[in-house]
Amino acid sequence: MSASLPVVLTIAGSDSCAGAGIQADLKTIAALGGYGVSAITALTAQNTTGVQAAQLVAPDFVLAQLRSLFADLPVRAVKTGMLGGREVVLAVAAALREHRPAHFVLDPVVRATSGDLLIDAAGLAALERELLPLATVVTPNVHEAAALTGLPVETAEQASVAARALLARGARAVVVTGGDLRDDHATDVLVTPAGEERFDGPRLASRHTHGTGCTHSAAIATLLAQGRTLEQAVAQAKQYVTLAIAAAPGLGAGHGPTDHFFFLRAPGAGFAPTAGGAARPVPRLHVITDEEQQQRFSHLELAALAVEGGAEAVQLREKRPRATRELIALAQAMRAVLSPRRVPLLVNDRLDVALGAGAEGAHVGRDDPEPALARRLLGWPALLGATANNLDEARAAARAPVDYIGVGPVFETRTKARPAPTLGLDGLAAIVAAVDKPVIAIGGITAERVRAVLAAGAWGVAATAAVVGQADPAAATRRLRAAIDAFGTRSTT
Question: Residue 492: how many CB atoms within 10 A of its CB?
Answer without folding.
Answer: 15
